[in-house]
Amino acid sequence: MSIKQQAHEIVDALPDDADWNELVKSLYRNQKITLGMTDLELTQKDLSEAEISTIMGRLESSSSRPDDMRDTRSYNPGNAATLGMVAGIVAIFFAFVFPPITWLAAPIAVVAGAIGVKHHQPRAWVPILMAIVSMAPMIMVLSEHVDYFK
């Protein structure tokens, strides 16, 4: 039997007022479509209506976006938060390598983060935390030198 004949039989078996979802469910019921089915569902001869609804739900909830890109719609940082995060990363990266860069980048991160927090930008507190983390080694080193001179 050809594909056209099988498709005609499936379509002819549908009621006259059927919609596209019913056609897709019928194709799953006859296992002509296997997209989104688990291995267990592929081995079963007859799928129940609940199992077909589960497959349809899985297909509707899936996304064509890669997993690492799915959250980018909901997170749109402002300019201050972005500047603060870049400055915070620079401050942390250069904390042990070349501290004067950290001394410049950390205050920029704090100021940009504070502006971002003031403007209610999402995750604007992160640059402030990054600046604190990057300055912690310097503060520890300086505190040892201050104790030395006492």
From TrEMBL:
The keyword Membrane applies. The chain crosses the membrane at residues 78-95, 101-117, 124-143. Keywords: Membrane, Transmembrane, Transmembrane helix. It comes from the Bacteria. This is Uncharacterized protein. It comes from Hydrogenovibrio thermophilus.
